[in-house]
Write a structure and sequence with these properties.
two-stranded antiparallel ribbon, 580 residues, 6 strands
Length: 580
């Protein structure tokens, strides 16, 4: 061998390689071992988490003047493994934090359409089950093709969009006005609405076809979407949504109900709230109703003041529980909805109590529902950003962009599937970011347990029957706080605005329409009354524009779609006004 070849010879032998694994399912064996260790060891159940910190009440002051300080537990990231007890407890906190937001829309929809107790309870159950299933999809991160994903891969849960709640109420009013839904007028002018389940089916059918808009938007580069819908737009829209819901639902229910009794008619079923046949019927605004709602509201405040981190995350449920206990003792609760509710229910399952709605398209609702999906897209971008920040992940790299794309796509597909679940369009819930910040746990394992609890709450129909039995003043006291929280969360979004002259101009123009519609909701009602004998297609267009701008106030309530008008103004001006 030539000397030049000696240096090329390697005398070191390679390290011995392991024999190939003959097992067909090594990954399954690993998961089984991990699961067995969790179930059979103390560490697998408890870990080293400080549960005393999680459950210890807060004392705002002490006799000595020194507050006891506890060291918070470590932070658990998105992919962190959790002990079973911690995963279940954090998951329960997320489920309780979003519970009021999930049961409120179907209760309001059913009340607006005068649906019976069995159908109303089913709508609550499907809302809980559907949100649990679609939250699992949103938390996933399924790779599709060419860098596209389905889901955020974060602890991001979904629930019925409050934008849908405001718009659907406007659509229902339009249906009663044009005769699609039945109503009668008494001799004194009091209007009584009849049951109209077909109206709900029309909203679902319209929502189903409009969901393709958000699915299409998900394939637009996230940075482009963020330029079209910056914080100045998203913040303005959601502030208007929260403000309108306080007036259309929260305060009205606090006073006794929002089904027509708030006008104090002199005759008919709604002469008293909630109806003259209720076990404890009173005039709207009676001090008993105001006091009951105030008790629920104060319970939330006291829980925030004295409660443990666990109770603070469930403060809305605490308010509902305290209000229901007092209302039950005073005889305000009608238990018929609990008795009539089925023991078990599920989606489409033969052999259990299932209700269906005829899926049809209501032409006048197409433009408003398209605007709803634009709104849910804006909500998704902002909420995914907040979820990533609170999970201590980057929000300015390609991975984050793919999370936004996957989240918007999941939202759009969720809108399609939710209509088949008999649930209105969904959006990512922002309040769960507060739970992550307080518990210091962003693990998706806790999110999956949250979904399990939501599905269980929905499957057991008696639970939905109980939610339906909550008195309107109790619900109003809690939802007024909940809707105000929506407004406050978007004030934080507006804090990212630099408030240049251009920004102030856009905000002023958008809120001119928003607050104008809020304070005088019938200003655009008569816009097209001068048009003589319009065709059916032209009339549907007029109805769509009227719903977007405002809505006919048959009960003289504040049921308006003000966020649509203010959102359109904000988007348009943001695109056409030059940057300074």
């Amino acid at each position: 061998m030539a000397p030049s070849d000696i240096s090329s010879v390697t005398r070191d032998q390679p390290a011995p390689t392991e024999l190939p694994n003959t097992s067909s399912f090594p990954a399954i064996r690993k998961h089984v071992t991990t699961f067995r260790n969790k179930l059979t060891t103390k560490y697998g159940w408890l870990g080293d988490y400080d549960y005393a910190w999680l459950c210890s009440p807060t004392l705002p002051f002490s006799i000595s003047g020194n507050k006891p300080v506890r060291r918070p537990p470590p932070f658990y990231g998105v992919e962190a493994e959790l002990p079973l007890l911690l995963a279940m407890s954090c998951g329960l906190q997320h489920a309780l934090a979003m519970l009021a937001g999930l049961i409120t829309p179907p209760i309001i929809f059913a009340s607006s359409l005068m649906l019976d107790a069995q159908t109303s309870a089913y709508m609550i159950s499907t809302s809980l089950i559907g949100c649990g299933i679609l939250s699992l999809v949103q938390m996933s991160r399924i790779r599709l093709w060419k860098g596209y994903y389905l889901g955020t891969g974060l602890l991001s849960v979904v629930g019925t969009s409050f934008a849908t709640l405001s718009t659907a109420n406007a659509i229902f009013d339009a249906m009663y006005n044009d005769g699609t839904c039945p109503s009668s007028v008494a001799s004194d002018g009091t209007v009584t609405r009849g049951a109209c389940p077909d109206a709900y089916g029309m909203v679902l059918g319209t929502s189903l076809i409009c969901s393709f808009l958000e699915i299409g938007l998900s394939f637009i580069p996230p940075r482009t979407l963020q330029r079209i819908f910056p914080p100045i737009v998203t913040g303005t829209v959601i502030i208007m949504i929260g403000a309108s819901l306080i007036g259309t639902s929260g305060i009205l229910n606090w006073g006794g109900g929002s089904n027509g009794c708030q006008t104090r008619p002199t005759s008919g079923l709604y002469q008293l709230c909630p109806t003259v046949d209720s076990p404890y019927a009173l005039l709207w605004g009676s001090p008993q109703f105001i006091g009951l709602g105030f008790l629920s509201f104060v319970s939330i405040v006291l829980t925030e003041l004295f409660g443990s981190p666990f109770l603070k995350n469930a403060s809305i449920i605490v308010g509902l529980a305290v209000g229901c206990i007092v209302a039950g003792a005073a005889g305000y609760i009608d238990g018929s909805s609990i008795k009539s509710a089925p023991a078990i229910t599920f989606l489409w399952l033969v052999g259990v109590s299932v209700y269906t709605f005829k899926l049809r398209v209501y032409p006048a609702a197409i433009l408003p529902m398209l605007a709803v999906y634009v709104s849910t897209t804006m909500e998704a971008i902002g909420d995914i950003t907040a979820s990533a920040e609170v999970s201590r992940l980057n929000v300015d790299d390609e991975e984050f962009d793919s999370r936004v794309q996957g989240g918007v796509l999941s939202d759009g597909m969720g809108g399609f599937l939710s209509a088949l679940f008999t649930v209105t369009p969904l959006s990512i819930f922002a309040q769960n970011n507060g739970v992550i910040a307080l518990t210091r746990c962003a693990s998706r394992t806790a999110g999956r347990w949250c979904c399990v609890f939501l599905i269980l709450f929905g499957v057991f129909g008696k639970i939905s029957g109980f939610f339906l039995a909550i008195p309107d003043p109790v619900l109003g006291g809690v939802t007024t706080f909940l809707f105000a929280s929506v407004v406050v969360s978007r004030f934080r979004v507006l804090s990212y605005v630099h408030y240049t002259r251009r920004d102030r101009f856009i905000l002023a123009a958008a809120m001119s329409f928003g607050f104008g519609d809020l304070l005088v909701p019938d200003i655009f009602t008569y816009l097209f009354q001068g048009v003589k004998n319009p065709s059916s297609g032209l009339q549907s267009l007029f109805d769509s524009i009227t719903i977007i701008l405002s809505t006919p106030c048959k009960y003289q309530t504040f049921i308006v779609s003000i966020f649509l008008a203010s959102g359109l103004v904000a988007v348009t001006l943001n695109l056409i006004l030059p940057q300074e």
